[in-house]
């Protein structure tokens, strides 16, 4: 059995006939934050979609605590302890905040009110606006709701796609703090992030993706300090 | 004044039928993302389903595909409540269940396996509509029928009090529509299934990654849409006649209600149905415009409202 909580081995994947991932290998250990960085089109989001069953791997395997999950329906993965926060359209805009959280917990068999109550305590802004439609929230508040919706199931693993995308710099810091808070509560996090320096700064390890495969990997600190990574992937026009 | 009140009552009855048809059409659009042209003929299927059930359970079975169906009268079949026999009330429920089954089977074996885009599904639904109608015509012939219920006339005290003609079946149509609409509202707002339906209509991909089994939700939506369409079909049959083309002939007006209310919005469909139905029936109140132009007036009103609110009255409100 794999010692990793999540592992992708020799994965090829893509959309229709178009291959995006090419012999991808990565893993996530318990209570880690792992950040995927890379240029636009490198396949970062495709990794999350393949891991979460939104795309089926063409070849290779994806395992959760040693159990094959490649191509498993997302609704089943949620029940197996994997959560996913998409980059965009990650809240139900026409539903209230409370209803959004309840939809995040449809697969729970018990304790839904308790866990939602704890989320309200942790994120008071949601409590204050619990009856408001989600579409009325600001960008940062939406991101908090999107996290919280995924956390209602108390997942072991959370996949987060570009949590800072489209947010004002002043809010990005809050978002990353929330990611750390979720991790400190025991959730392993695999995160795709365009703000590479900030993403790596809160992560334990990182992978640099380029053309669908892992170009560099290592401790987040060492990637930040690696002159080649810094020059090629952290200092280019794609990054601020 | 009395004439206007009379037209308002007529408008409410016609609106009830349109609302029930429009809700199902809008539900399908909001979740399955296509304009289902078979929805009118689903109303027809429900109306004929109720006709068969009411006949069989009332001891006066109809002929289907040239064969006279067995008579299986239920106890108290002849008990009359508001002009309608108990057998017809049961028949309405059977018709709703039948149309729901037809809708689910169609989704499961035609639309779902196609896995096609909106336009392809729309074209397919036209074929499905023709299929439904052909089966009804083969089974019952192309002639018109009624539920064979004796009309007991106007409600006297309303006639005396307000001077307007309201029949018991008008009351039944309005009352049962109100029950069904309130029931749907309760389902959508206060039950887990209803929240799942609204969530899936809002963002099906997010619903799926949230753990909602969207396939089951879509089936539930077809059941509800089919059942409400059947109720609308039965009420149309009660108000007019039961004919193989009845649903198809009213489909354009139902579409107008859905578009006016805001495509994909269930509450918009209710409101759109009310506006279109009232406009349709209030046409004689407009000076120099005769009743023959009622459909034209309803559509002109729809165009005018859409010019002001291009996404419909409640566009983007699920």
Provide the fold topology.
The complex is a heterodimer of chains A (240) and B (318).
Chain A: E1 6-15, E2 18-28, E3 33-37, H1 44-51, E4 59-64, E5 67-68, H2 74-79, E6 82-85, H3 97-104, H4 112-122, H5 124-128, H6 139-151, E7 157-161, H7 169-184, E8 188-192, H8 196-201, E9 205-210, E10 213-219, H9 220-225, H10 227-234
Parallel strand pairs in A: 3-8, 3-9, 6-7, 7-8
Antiparallel strand pairs in A: 1-2, 1-4, 4-5, 9-10
Helix pairs in contact in A: 3-6, 6-7
Chain B: H1 2-32, H2 39-58, E1 63-64, E2 67-68, E3 80-81, E4 84-85, H3 86-114, H4 118-140, H5 156-162, H6 168-190, H7 192-202, H8 204-209, H9 214-239, H10 246-261, H11 266-282, H12 294-308
Antiparallel strand pairs in B: 1-2, 3-4
Helix pairs in contact in B: 1-6, 1-7, 1-9, 1-10, 1-11, 2-3, 2-4, 2-9, 2-10, 3-9, 6-7, 6-9, 7-9, 10-11, 10-12, 11-12
GO molecular function (chain B): L-isoleucine transmembrane transporter activity; L-leucine transmembrane transporter activity; L-phenylalanine transmembrane transporter activity; L-valine transmembrane transporter activity
GO cellular component, one term (chain B): plasma membrane
Membrane topology (chain B): Multi-pass membrane protein
Entry keywords:
heterodimer; A: alpha/beta; 10 helices; disordered C terminus; B: mainly alpha; two-stranded antiparallel ribbon; globular; ABC_transporter-like_ATP-bd (chain A); ABC_transporter-like_CS (chain A); transport (chain A)
Descriptive notes:
The complex is a heterodimer of chains A (240) and B (318). Chain A is built from 10 helices and 10 strands. Chain A has one domain: Rossmann fold (3-Layer(aba) Sandwich). In chain A, a hairpin with a 2-residue loop joins strand 4 (59-64) and strand 5 (67-68). Chain A is globular, with a radius of gyration of 17 Å. By secondary structure, chain A is of the alpha/beta class. In chain A, 46% of the residues are buried. Chain A is 36% helix and 25% strand. By secondary structure, chain B is mainly α. Chain B has one domain. Helix content of chain B is 70%, strand content 3%. In chain B, the strands form 2 sheets. A two-stranded antiparallel ribbon of chain B has the order 1-2. In chain B, strands 3-4 form a two-stranded antiparallel ribbon. Chain B is globular and about 60 Å long. The mean pLDDT of chain B is 91. The A-B interface holds A 52, 54, 73-75, 78-79, 84, 86, 89-95, 99, 102-104, 106-107, 149-150, 153 and B 192, 195-196, 198-199, 201-203, 205-214, 316-318.
């Amino acid at each position: 059995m794999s010692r990793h909580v999540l592992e992708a081995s020799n994965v090829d994947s893509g959309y229709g006939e178009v291959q995006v991932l090419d012999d991808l290998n990565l893993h996530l250990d318990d209570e880690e934050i792992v950040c995927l960085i890379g240029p636009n089109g490198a396949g970062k989001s495709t990794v999350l979609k393949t891991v979460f069953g939104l795309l089926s791997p063409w070849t290779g395997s994806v395992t959760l605590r040693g159990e094959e999950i490649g191509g498993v329906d997302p609704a089943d993965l949620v029940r197996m302890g994997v959560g996913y926060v998409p980059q965009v359209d990650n809240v139900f805009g026409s539903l209230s905040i409370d209803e959004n959280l309840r939809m995040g917990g449809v697969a729970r068999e018990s304790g839904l009110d308790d866990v939602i109550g704890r989320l309200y305590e942790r994120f008071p802004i949601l409590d204050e606006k619990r009856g408001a439609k989600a579409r009325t929230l600001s960008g940062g508040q939406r991101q908090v709701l999107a996290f919280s919706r995924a956390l209602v199931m108390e997942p072991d693993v959370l996949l987060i796609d570009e949590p800072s995308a489209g947010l004002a710099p002043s809010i990005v810091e809050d978002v990353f703090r929330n990611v750390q808070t979720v991790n400190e509560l025991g959730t392993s996090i695999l995160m795709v992030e365009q703000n590479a320096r900030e993403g790596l700064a809160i992560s334990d390890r990182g992978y640099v993706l380029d053309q669908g495969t892992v170009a560099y990997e290592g401790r987040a600190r060492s990637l930040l300090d690696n002159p080649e990574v810094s020059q090629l992937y952290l200092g280019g026009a794609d990054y601020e | 004044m009395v004439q206007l009140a009379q037209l308002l009552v007529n408008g409410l009855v016609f609106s009830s039928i349109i609302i029930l048809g429009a809700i199902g059409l809008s539900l399908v659009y909001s979740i399955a993302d296509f304009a289902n042209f078979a929805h009118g003929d689903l109303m027809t299927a429900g109306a004929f389903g109720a006709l068969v059930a009411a006949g069989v359970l009332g001891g006066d079975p109809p002929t289907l595909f040239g064969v006279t169906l067995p008579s299986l009268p239920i106890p108290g079949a002849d008990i009359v409540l508001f002009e309608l026999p108990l057998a017809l009330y049961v028949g309405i429920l059977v018709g709703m269940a039948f149309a729901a089954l037809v809708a689910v089977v169609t989704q499961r074996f035609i639309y779902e396996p196609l896995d096609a885009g909106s336009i392809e599904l729309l074209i397919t639904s036209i074929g499905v509509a023709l299929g439904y109608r052909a089966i009804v015509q083969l089974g019952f012939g192309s002639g018109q029928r009624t539920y064979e219920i004796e009309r007991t006339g106007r409600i006297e005290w309303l006639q005396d009090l307000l001077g307007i003609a309201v029949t018991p079946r008008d009351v039944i149509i309005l009352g049962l529509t109100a029950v069904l609409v309130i029931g749907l509202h309760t389902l959508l707002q206060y039950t887990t299934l209803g929240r799942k339906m609204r969530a899936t209509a809002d963002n099906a991909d997010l619903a799926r990654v949230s753990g909602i089994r969207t396939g089951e939700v879509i089936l539930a939506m077809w059941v509800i849409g089919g059942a409400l369409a059947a109720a609308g079909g039965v009420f149309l049959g009660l108000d007019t006649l039961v004919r193989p083309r009845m649903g198809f002939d009213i489909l354009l007006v139902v579409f107008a209600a859905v578009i006016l209310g805001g495509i994909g919005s269930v509450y918009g469909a209710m409101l759109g149905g009310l506006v279109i139905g009232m406009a349709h029936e209030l046409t004689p109140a407009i000076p120099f415009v005769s009743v023959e132009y009622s459909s034209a007036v309803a559509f002109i009103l729809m165009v005018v409202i859409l010019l002001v609110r291009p996404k419909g009255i409640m566009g983007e409100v699920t």
